[in-house]
Amino acid sequence: MARTALVLGAGLGGLVAAETLRKLLPKADRVVAVDRTAEHFFPPSLLWLMVGERVPADFSRPLSRLAGRGVEFIQGKVTRIDPERRLVDFGGQTMAADALVIALGADYAPETIPGLAEAGLDFYTLEGATAVRDTLAEFTRGRIVILTAAPMYKCPAAPYEAALLVEDFLRRRGLAEQTSIEFFAAEPQPMAVAGPQVGAAVRGMLEARGIAYHPEHQVKAVDPATRRIAFANGASAGYDLLLYVPPHRAPVVAREAGLTNEAGWIPVDRHTLQTRFENVFALGDITTIPLKMGRPLPKAGVFAHGQAETVANNIAQAWTGKGQPRSFDGHGMCFIEAGGGRAGIGRGNFYAEPTPQVDMHGPSLIWHAGKILYEKYWLYRRF
């Protein structure tokens, strides 16, 4: 009897899940991917777009190409999930699934902080990163503030990379003396889950380039008229250009389905990614996986990738009886762009106890080349 595997979301994790399922399952089984957008883009490349080193077409591909991989792609917004019956409404239709993989990512909610969206530019979206590029091209002097609006956000290295790339961009244009950059972080240190050594190394990279770093500054409100930022600790700061990482939250459809916990994310088994519902899995940014240290597993593409391979393998193994069950082990890595054609890299075991064991390698030309190669590989491999 033919079965249907339904993947909600075609970001990094959703793509890997759908394509791996298609590779492992018999042709008679359907693999369907649903996404509200018609195009996939490679999120790490937004940082290069922001400083004019990419255009969107360089790292975007139409999701219709999934048909060439044997995956049915349907563009449509998911409006209802019934996890008990594995029924999903999207694009005006209802589909039943034998296995449901929820990879809808995190939604951005800048409107939850008064004035933030009106005052600054969000570099976590394609539109926002494009706007940053255009604004930086005209920027000649003044104070740039980069802030993380909440302690938890996806790709923990990205805002720090953004600060370093902006500094490099301005310095190459001869504007170092006319500009200053300050970083206000809601978190206590850079990449806190990776440990104090990694955090100190990243902070050192910022300060070596003259970027002032202010940890534990939770933004409370922004006044676009006066260009002032108010923080929960009573501090305030002015700016000429404000770049920010918005607050994140799970899509409303997941919350309405009863899939989320009190923190607003979908809890899953840390090794199988199964939710509390049978044959319903969730992976990537929409999930929460607590670590022994008291913080959750970071929201990062490398984890979504590994989780997707685990989920797809286990669905296929259960349906076909071939192969062995797989367990997600919490290993991951990420590049850290530093500007000047250099990048660092952090990698390790985030499931290690009592704290994650992560090694940091400083900026070099080799790691930067590695990040470029991975961007090219991803787009070639998936499309």
Enumerate the strands of the largest sheet in spatial order, edge to edge or round the barrel: 5-2-1-9-21
Give the overall shape. Answer: globular
Strand content: 25-35%
pLDDT < 50 stretches: none
CATH class of the largest domain: Alpha Beta
Assign the CATH topology of the largest domain.
Answer: FAD/NAD(P)-binding domain
Mean pLDDT equals 97
> Under the CATH scheme, which architecture of the largest domain would be assigned?
3-Layer(bba) Sandwich
Count of helix runs = 9
CATH superfamily grouping of the largest domain: FAD/NAD(P)-binding domain
Instruction: Assign a percent range to the helix content.
Output: 25-40%
- Span from first to last CA? 30 Å
Structure write-up:
With 383 residues, the chain is of the alpha/beta class. The chain folds into 2 domains: 4-106 and 250-320, 3-Layer(bba) Sandwich (FAD/NAD(P)-binding domain), CATH 3.50.50; 110-247, FAD/NAD(P)-binding domain (3-Layer(bba) Sandwich), CATH 3.50.50.60. The protein is built from 9 helices and 25 strands. It has helices at 12-24, 46-50, 116-119, 126-138, 158-172, 196-208, 252-256, 301-320, 365-382, and strands at residues 4-8, 30-35, 39-41, 60-62, 72-75, 78-82, 87-90, 93-96, 99-102, 107-108, 121-122, 142-148, 179-184, 212-214, 219-223, 228-231, 236-238, 241-245, 248-249, 266-267, 280-282, 287-288, 331-339, 342-349, 357-364. The chain has a 5-stranded parallel β-sheet with strand order 5-2-1-9-21, covered by helices on one side. A 5-stranded parallel β-sheet has the order 11-18-12-13-14. Strand 15 (219-223) and strand 16 form a beta hairpin. Helix 1 (12-24) runs parallel beside helix 8 (301-320). The mean pLDDT is 97.
